[in-house]
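Usage

Read records sequentially. Each one opens with the input sequence:
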Amino acid sequence: MKRHASIAALLLIGALTACGEKVTRDITAPPPSNSGIRFFNFGVLSPSVNFYADQQKLTATLSTTGVESTTGVGYGGVSASGAYSAIAPGQHTFTGRIAATTDKDLPISTVTQNIEDGKRYSYFQSGFYNSTTKTVDGFIVEDPFTAPTDFALATVRFVHAISNANPMTLYAKSTVAPNAESAIGSEVAYKGAGAFVTIPAGGYDLSTRYANTATNAMTRTGVQFAGGRVYTITARGDITVASTTACGAANRTCLDNTTNR
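and closes with the structure output:
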């Protein structure tokens, strides 16, 4: 009898242990982060770069052979067509590193930023590339936007990435009568970002102006803002070199239009 009771007890313990293995879950791990960052190469005459968070590469371009291309993100470009790369919350050192074979992976811009959980950010290489020191400016801004739920509206903000330009205000003038014009936020200095502003969806002519003047410093015509979308307009280039096209090459000024969402 004692022998049978011992066997029964062992079987019961085994059954309970097996059941425990089936239902026990580890819920101590933190949920995955939905923080994100994207990267712009707006440093005038800057070489193409790949962008890193600490030692982790977040942007790269593949060639047709499956090997990383040496083109990287070129001047005037944005990583992943403007999409955000996932990033863990916490303090990070972000760098733009040369993508070409010559000076491969040499950091030319560096910015340290604390990434908060659930927030989005944009990294801008900016100013003028110094070919002697092989450095260029960089800055990061938070992208605290809320997508409009009314699809008759769009959300727009202004970022200033021209190092030799004074603080400017962005204006949007409707291309539909009565051609109303409104300021997109307030005046923004170099390395600054204005507030996101909600405006009616549609076509606009954009311009920037310095304080106390009616003269446009930069212009871009025929920009379409779709309803329910969010946009960042960024001033880039050399303010002394006017552009005759929407966004000229090399060092010409440009009001870049990139969708956040």
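Summary fields computed downstream for this record:
- The radius of gyration is 25 Å.
- The chain is about 10% helix and 45% strand.
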